[in-house]
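Why run this: before we spend reagent on co-expression, it is cheaper to look at a predicted model of the complex and decide which construct boundaries make sense. The entries below are exactly what would go into the expression plan.
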Amino acid sequence: MTDVDLTGARRVATFAPDLLQSTEHHLCPGCGHPVAWRLLVEVLAELELVDRSIGVVGHGCYTQIITIADVEFLQCLHGRAPAVATGVKRMLPEHAIYTIQGDGDMVSEGLAEVLHAAARGESITCLMLNNGVFGDTGGQMTAATTVGQRTKTDLGGRTAAEHGHPIDVPEIVASFPGVAYVARGAVDKPNAVARTRRYLREAFASQLAGEGFSLVEVLTMCPTGWAVPTDQGAQYQRDQMNPTFPIGELRPRRPSAVAAPQDA
Amino acid sequence: MTDVDLTGARRVATFAPDLLQSTEHHLCPGCGHPVAWRLLVEVLAELELVDRSIGVVGHGCYTQIITIADVEFLQCLHGRAPAVATGVKRMLPEHAIYTIQGDGDMVSEGLAEVLHAAARGESITCLMLNNGVFGDTGGQMTAATTVGQRTKTDLGGRTAAEHGHPIDVPEIVASFPGVAYVARGAVDKPNAVARTRRYLREAFASQLAGEGFSLVEVLTMCPTGWAVPTDQGAQYQRDQMNPTFPIGELRPRRPSAVAAPQDA
Amino acid sequence: MTARGTVVMALDRCKGCGLCVPVCRPGALEMTDERNAKGYVLPQLLDGCTGCRACAEVCPDFVFEVYRFDIGPAELTGSMMEVVE
Amino acid sequence: MTARGTVVMALDRCKGCGLCVPVCRPGALEMTDERNAKGYVLPQLLDGCTGCRACAEVCPDFVFEVYRFDIGPAELTGSMMEVVE
Amino acid sequence: MTLVLREGYDAIAAAAVDCGCRFFSGYPMLPFTGLLDSFARELPRTGGVLIQADTEIEGANMALGAAATGARAATGSTGQGIALMQETIAEAALNELPLVVFNVARGQQDYFQATRGGGWGDYRTITLAPASVVEAAELTTLAFELADEWMTPVILYADHMIGFTQMTIEQRPADAVKPAPEKPWKLDGRSGGTGRSKVIWTWRQGKHNTPGPGPNLHWQNVAEKYELAQREARHVARDVDDAEVVVVSFGTTAAFVDYVVDELRADGHRIGTFRPVTLWPFPSDALGEIVLGDACKVVLVHELNAGQMIDDVRLAVEGAKPVHAIGGVSQDESGMRQGDLLQIDIIRTRLLDAMTGSTR
Amino acid sequence: MTLVLREGYDAIAAAAVDCGCRFFSGYPMLPFTGLLDSFARELPRTGGVLIQADTEIEGANMALGAAATGARAATGSTGQGIALMQETIAEAALNELPLVVFNVARGQQDYFQATRGGGWGDYRTITLAPASVVEAAELTTLAFELADEWMTPVILYADHMIGFTQMTIEQRPADAVKPAPEKPWKLDGRSGGTGRSKVIWTWRQGKHNTPGPGPNLHWQNVAEKYELAQREARHVARDVDDAEVVVVSFGTTAAFVDYVVDELRADGHRIGTFRPVTLWPFPSDALGEIVLGDACKVVLVHELNAGQMIDDVRLAVEGAKPVHAIGGVSQDESGMRQGDLLQIDIIRTRLLDAMTGSTR
Amino acid sequence: MTDDRRDVIFTGIGGQGVQLCSKVLANAAVAAGHHVMLSSYFGGEMRGGRTEATVITRDQPVDLPPIVPRLDALIVLHPAFLDDALPRLVAAPLIVADTWAWTDPSNPPPPARVVPVPAREIAADLGMPVAAGLALVGAFVALTGVADDAALATATRQLVPPHRAAALEANLAALTAGADAVRGTPVGIGS
Amino acid sequence: MTDDRRDVIFTGIGGQGVQLCSKVLANAAVAAGHHVMLSSYFGGEMRGGRTEATVITRDQPVDLPPIVPRLDALIVLHPAFLDDALPRLVAAPLIVADTWAWTDPSNPPPPARVVPVPAREIAADLGMPVAAGLALVGAFVALTGVADDAALATATRQLVPPHRAAALEANLAALTAGADAVRGTPVGIGS
Ligand SMILES: Cc1ncc(C[n+]2csc(CCOP(=O)(O)OP(=O)(O)O)c2C)c(N)n1
Ligand SMILES: Cc1ncc(C[n+]2csc(CCOP(=O)(O)OP(=O)(O)O)c2C)c(N)n1
Ligand code: SF4
Ligand code: SF4
Ligand code: SF4
Ligand code: SF4
Ligand code: SF4
Ligand code: SF4
Ligand SMILES: [Mg+2]
Ligand SMILES: [Mg+2]
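The model came back. Tokens follow.
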């Protein structure tokens, strides 16, 4: 611990939220996932959901959150989290039920699950940590890898001719009528982090208000999978991913949403 | 056979295309599928693809085409036709490879398959015969049933509150960069039939020209699943389905498509 | 009235759905109480057929063969021709 | 220069990624050649910290605790506060 | 006691709801679809939830999620759809989640699928195979009870004949609906923030504060649990005490075999039948005991498949007596129903032939 | 003969491409991913196609489609991903499509999955289980040959140890690449319009002009074919002639068992080993013959699972000699690799304990 | 004394209401306190296809396979698929047949007891041709005593939706007329 | 006469190049005409974690399990995980160790033959600390004759990419220096 004089100092940021049982994790240097974890548990605490939330977690590097965050988790099969969360939510309709998935988990293996849940207008929140690679299996291309992005599959960068184009799940679901809220954030710089926190807050709020399905994508750095130095991960993401996946609210909450029934 | 005087008459329409080994089938009275079959084999004949096409066919009432149309078929697992067709196409890149699927097959069970194939820009043509029900299992709601549509699941009509909203696969894939051609036709009246024939022709032409993925949806009547009298099927479709799924080209072929490479 | 067209109907395979009737603009088709061996009620041809092929386009059971009298006797084989929209 | 803020760093868990350095607007952080027990190179705090929390917001390894001198000693507990955009 | 006439589908769904099933999800497939319809009718009376899922995999995972909250939950399909659920069924087993899976099968070819699975890891699924509508209802209740007791997926292996046949069953009393038992391990969110918050996952590595046993130990424990569950083996034996010929068959096929065997017995043949009610655990001890008796000369196996249960019969008999297959692949022309080998004349002929052969 | 050093993954992929494999599709999963990478390197040299699929189900179905055109095609995953392919593998079997499936497994718990499947209908998959890198390459070639000969899916059951180990294998000659054999049933479009156009589907109902046998007959034929395929059983027996103790194990585990048994034999113990190379068809006759010999007193089964292959051993032994399990669930702390029961000291102790027990 | 043959198979074609008839009989037997098993066979989607149903009535729980191999009674609504049904009968069955539908009195041979009922005429008189089957059910019940009139009426009321009151009345009338047509028919073997 | 102990396990920590060293040795043995088996173990993602590799050399095809239970030689790049490696050695192993890394000469006891090589110094002199392991490989090859110098050089060239020519030269030099350091070391039992 660095030694500094704290006389007269007011603490404005703790190391980590109380809801993390440990500050140690095994993710790589420069990985973007842990910041997303922090935001998630901060928002759960802020909205007083700590003892009435269940996270349904897919398979990827982010899965490690289930070993340190002090909330309940159901680790489920790769790609199936939105279906599992549906079953959980229907039995616990007053709870905040959310998924944590990666781009590989949601856009590759689990594409049907998330789209069907969104079309049903299922009252769950899906969180996608998008680094454009299967980090956990070594950094291969996923169905969300942007054209030109370096992956283990193609260190020269994805080419559309050989591998096609990425699928933009948030954009697709934002157009679904049963969907209450969709946003895309990032954790590459402080204001992106702050916006992402707000998006998560909105998403959970919309779920609690019974407005329908919500989804927040968070762009996260994977310097390992991209084969870039850790300190260039943030910039690489901005240059390579943000143009295809711009940050912002793709579907803001409707002001009337709480009042109006969603049926046609 | 009705007895008419054909002296001086010129035949302008045969009973059925030569490519049908039989004009008998077991589909219900008023079913829309057989007309789509006819259009398909007409276009295959017209484009001289009869001996270099393979149809990969899903599970639904339309599957019966494999027993009467005189072209090669691979009947595959429910929902998986776009993946199977991908394997076929990669081994026979000069052939016309297409799928025949229903809305249940493509939008319910096979949603991931068709979207992943479209995103890859796979050079295949997917044909979806959309009647908004699982005809073959008795007329239940699918992921493409329009709100208000009668199905066995809910004879009062689908409600968004209980079942959510239909997924518009053609609209989704029309926005994918690797996609060459997307259109939606119908068979409820002669000019819809004629347009659908043109759409099929365009789709196959785009595949042969190597422009990318193509998809043609055809709205077909299922009076049995909808529990409407057969002679009201066409009108029911126009009133109930067309507003949600309007007929037309969702993604016309790009004039430059043949020349320009699709890579970024 | 001189017939401009006519149809040959393979009514043994008709399933009585009635889809052909409303698409016939001149109203040359109507359903009857007659039934075929399968028990389906059948359409019948009235006067006024123009040989427009609309019935053949929509019939799910391949019941119609369509003829025109207005043009020479050249025979069309294979695929059905396009309806001009 | 009077310090407006400072940070306490749990450098034992730092992984040397360097993400904290460019987000520190006053340039109060820089990487060094020092390594921790795990073998990772470490950042160090220079003068000029404003207590803006940017480093804490982006650090994936929960290394930073941030303090400000400019306001009273009220302690913030629990969740981190929002950075004003 | 009031009798009511019920279709098998309805009888199963009613029994499930009566014993506290609150969630059902499935995807249409014949002949399973009938059960989906019945659950849709039955669940609302206790406020339960029915979801017509968009795929079998989603349906199974929804039910798994519901089960994780402690609710009695079920899914189902026919064998082919259940093939798609193998990963999920294994997940439920290794997560020790009670999940009831209904296979309304197209025949008897799913024996291996049910008893050996195609999932991953060392797991088993208790499998109950009713021979009639009445028994299907009883075993449905048992399925939920065993699932909870052993914290495991349980398969109820029925077929279209059970689904479509109507039989009189006892009208359930007004207070039939029993709440599912309390489950301390269930997720309800409430452990969040306590420092000992729950996590369910197949690797059981626990959390920083509360480390779990890890995969090796956990999976060993699960395997041992299934060893213990062997005691749940159930069977029905008819007329075996003096039987020279013991015929083994399961499910509805056994009802046909019993019919023929009753006739043969009436004709003076010393023949009896053995029907496993649990396909897993297979009632090996019970069968072994019968077969080891002096009376038994030969064991015949009638199953409508290429020879699947016969492995378990042979494993039980251990070479003590000859074991012969008299069944085989038998499907009707639609591919959806059992075929000729259910005809009693054929069964009779095959039994007589095998008996002659064996006593030669 | 030139020797080259090759990692197992590369050796398998090279052997596959050499014998004409032109298509591979798979979805990343450890430790299968290494094989996907190797195929990506090897396939281009013959113009073959590699698709990194977006799901296991898509990967398997792509390979099935490629196989239907007559091309040698393969897919793969680890056991859990292969659970997702069960429906597809059954489809390939019932469609008689040659499809090679590589299971780079996390251990030995996929024996039931490989030999009994979790698909639908009566089908089998020939399953080859190599014990070394060199054998993995040889069996890869055999897998494609058997798939074509028997028109069936064939599983090659390998593991991470085979994948990651490098061994010297013979450099293949320049003309190693063999074209796949001609397949008259393959789809190539050309029968279209002939009035006898081809159609492939599991129900085999044919077309109006060319009716097929229908599901019952077709599935009976398939079942009979698998009966015939029993003759493909292969095994390796070591020092069994005078062995009082015969140890049965498969895959890489067998290499460890052999090592210990060699030591014990050097110490004077009359012990030998039996390794099924084909898990299905299990070499029952060969094992039965050895076990029926006078020398054999006891059969020990070492497998790293809760007891799966032991069923096949018991079915082969038919109670003639006692059969004991000495293996068990054994996983490392990551859950991804085999655990302690590969340690030779443990194997030695278990063997000696079991031998003492059995000769008491 | 009533006829004790009551393991009955209905044979007819699609559209004749075989399913309703078998349900009425089955539910009436239940209302009369019996254990019952009802199995149906629909011959597919085609109008006019083979349709069958079997109703088993017992005083003990039914212990039979779902497709009952041997039956001792037959109700004939239409002769088209008689050849499928006849082989399933025991040697001395009770056969209740619409008079027009029973054209070959030599098949099956005695000791079968064949009771023709002018069901078509009864139904035509009631202005409801589709009720012919119920006239046969009424006759069968009267012959066998498998249920009483009250149970029959209750079952019919349950199965015919209240909004089809007119149909209900005709159905009830058909049952009664069928019963009346056979009252007094001697019990026993032979037609 | 060369030492015939050649079933060797490398032990070291992440970052020392254990994998490269084992590959150089294995490929050199192949180039020298031997049958070889090479297995590696990486201790996870952490820098400084346990890293091991085993190289088996035979004149016949190797018939051993992939994790070779008993080895008769050890190359020590770092002592951190020595306790994992030592139990796998036979009673009389050959041990080639970086001098600094071999601090407890009493373990294992004789008849082990321990050959210390000043590999760290050799590598430092070459300006390439990471080449220390290759000095040990050079020494091991010189002691055992499992490959000749040419084979060693060929293998190294194959494994070090051409665009890293500078590294290549240092690596080759380290191999030679390591060999030189042990030439003349007597063969046999005892350290
Ligand atoms: C059915 C199945 N297939 C494959 C895997 C292997 N697998 C583990 S994590 C993972 C993907 C990780 O990608 P992503 O979700 O993007 O997470 P990241 O590691 O990039 O954070 C895969 C493919 C699996 N666990 N299950
Ligand atoms: C894996 C699987 N699940 C379910 C089924 C049952 N099934 C057969 S056809 C069908 C759907 C038919 O719907 P659609 O594709 O819309 O075709 P339609 O019959 O409406 O023309 C289903 C669910 C199946 N064959 N396979
Ligand atoms: S591989 Fe990528 S996603 Fe996984 S921990 Fe490392 S940086 Fe993070
Ligand atoms: S059920 Fe519907 S889709 Fe199927 S044949 Fe009948 S009308 Fe056509
Ligand atoms: S559309 Fe065809 S099937 Fe329908 S009524 Fe007319 S002729 Fe008959
Ligand atoms: S051809 Fe045209 S005008 Fe003639 S009957 Fe048909 S629809 Fe009518
Ligand atoms: S961001 Fe955190 S982990 Fe990275 S260098 Fe800075 S303090 Fe260390
Ligand atoms: S709090 Fe702000 S100013 Fe202080 S070190 Fe962190 S980023 Fe720099
Ligand atoms: Mg990712
Ligand atoms: Mg449909």
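The longest helix of chain C spans residues 54-58. Chains C and E do not touch (no CB pair under 8 Å). Bring this page to Monday's planning discussion.
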